[in-house]
Design brief:
Number of helices: 2
Strand content: 5-15%
Shape: globular
Helix content: 25-40%
Distance between the termini: 30 Å
Structural class: mainly alpha
Number of strands: 2
Strand order of the largest sheet: 1-2
Radius of gyration: 12 Å
Order of helices and strands: HEHE
Length: about 70
């Protein structure tokens, strides 16, 4: 097992890079779980879910009444 944490500035392409990594890992036969952690952009979880669907990765979903940036 391994954990890959992606950190960067807003607009740096983190979500796209995570999606591409998930696809690469999937092609190598590895199991991948994506978990959103964006505290700024509410739509990031939806974009990450789309990448999970495209790559065959699982998506961790956190149901919360308030966006993360409010908590």
């Amino acid at each position: 097992p391994a954990v890959v944490l992606i950190i960067g500035v807003n607009g740096g392409g983190k979500t796209t890079s995570v999606g591409k990594l998930a696809h690469k890992f999937s092609q190598e036969g590895l199991s991948t779980l994506l978990a959103p952690g964006d505290t700024f952009r509410a739509a990031a979880a939806e974009q990450l879910a789309e990448w999970a669907n495209r790559s065959g990765a699982r998506m961790a979903e956190f149901r919360c009444a308030h966006p993360p940036f409010i908590l």
